[in-house]
Amino acid sequence: MEIFIVLGEFTFLLLICSFLVFSLYSLIEKEKRTFWRSTLFLVGLGVVNFGFRLAPSPLNAWLFGAVFGLFVIFLIFLFVPPLKKKPVEIVGKQEKVDERDVIFARFDLIEGTQNYMDYYGRKPENRKVDDEIRKIPDILATPHFEKSPALFSLAAAEFDFLEHQLTQVQGEVFPESVRSSPSDNTHLVKDIAKYLGADICGVSLLDQAYVYSHVGRGPEPFGQKIVLEHKYAVAFAVEMDLGMVASAPRAPVVVETGKKYVEAAKISIIVARFIRRLGYPARAHVAGSNYQAMLPPIAWMSGLGELGRIGILITERFGPRVRLGLVTTDLPLIPDVPKRLGVQEFCQRCQKCARNCPAQAIPDGDKSEESGVRKWVLNREECYRFWRKAGTDCAMCIYVCPYSKPDNSFHDFIRKMAERSSFAQSLSIRADDLFYGRSPRKKISPLGI
């Protein structure tokens, strides 16, 4: 009987220490609700443990033994059976996407111009909904500045800066090629990208299915056929500050978006110039209308993460709380492989983003097929409609995603567990709702707004 008491006491000690660590992390992260709820569990465990000690023998031994037995069963469920992680499903031929159909390209069109008439002549089904949305002031338009003049001005300045970088994406290739092995090249490019500010970086072969077919935005002529024949893609991500994202959908989030796009542009332009100086063609792909390829699927192919319910990349360390950058090149490199993080299964169970989407643009059901891929397809028009109403890029889905928690040891452990079993995924989803809320509250940003 004594062994039951020892094992039970050990189990209580382990649980109490776990909630103590959780409470401390929550305090550091300034998560008041989480801190108090975790502390309540901590105190509750202490009270129950004390009560068990006061129980007469042999009842106390049986009680402690039962606690240990339940804990063992819990651990078994946590690891067995292992999660069968599905890959992203390619179910048919992947046709190239015409950038002219991308929502941002459509809203760059000016009513009455030849490009406007040509596009809606080809795609009349988009005209009615687009013209309805055009009645709403644009993102960062003057009417929105009343909400926060300083922050909207800052965001506008960031995106103005990006527009001035669009002509820096490509240039002369130096005639003398510096010869090195693909392995050395890969390590070098990744190290330089990270030195310049990338948090994660990967490489893939450039799949032509993810290259746009025709120009929809940028300095090149509208409708021009895109020819991008580079062999490799270097994809990277920069982390967005959680404190800024937690203000979604208010002004600080679009300031953070602009800041990270500027960082990604800096990294990609310098890396591309560096590669050209080595004697190999390279092109940077910069936000603000100079992408020639779709970044999320290329980042997935490069091993940066998986595509989730919200239609963007879910990374291992930061969840969707990143902005992506891309350089395409002919510098010989070694491709990475796509990762399976259990995101498909997690997103199938979670639905927190769909529940909290102000526009109700995220599907709460099963996947559907689009362009040869089975995935969750967003209602892009409704998403963008809300962006214009808010004057920002919203980011509520990024904020509420359980994967977006801080990149620290505690949350990394939770993410690793959720990668391993269905039970761990279900438990982490319910725990996220319990401790952080089914609809997490917006917070004051580090800028005080």
Q: From N to C, what is the helix and strand string?
A: HHHEHHHHHEEHHEHEEEHHEEHHHH
Helix percent band = 40-55%
Strand content: 5-15%
The total tally of domains equals: 2
Q: Multimeric state of these chains?
A: single chain
Sheet bearing the most strands, described?
A: 4 strands, antiparallel
Report the mean per-residue pLDDT as an integer: 94
Radius of gyration: 25 Å
In words, what does this structure look like?
The protein folds into 2 domains: 1-80, no CATH class; 90-96 and 138-400, no CATH class. 48% of the residues lie in helices and 9% in strands. It contains 17 helices and 9 strands. The strands form 3 sheets. The protein has a 4-stranded antiparallel beta sheet with strand order 2-3-7-4, sandwiched between helices. Strands 1-9-8 form a 3-stranded antiparallel beta sheet, with no helix packed on it. It is globular, with a radius of gyration of 25 Å. The N and C termini lie far apart (59 Å). The mean pLDDT is 94.
Write the layout of secondary structure elements.
Blueprint: H1 2-28, H2 32-54, H3 59-79, E1 89-90, H4 103-106, H5 114-122, H6 127-134, H7 149-163, H8 182-196, E2 200-205, E3 232-239, H9 242-245, H10 251-277, E4 282-285, H11 295-301, E5 305-307, E6 313-315, E7 322-329, H12 343-350, H13 352-356, E8 368-370, E9 373-375, H14 380-390, H15 396-400, H16 409-418, H17 422-436
Antiparallel strand pairs: 1-9, 2-3, 3-7, 4-7, 5-6, 8-9
Helix pairs in contact: 1-2, 1-3, 7-10, 8-10, 12-17
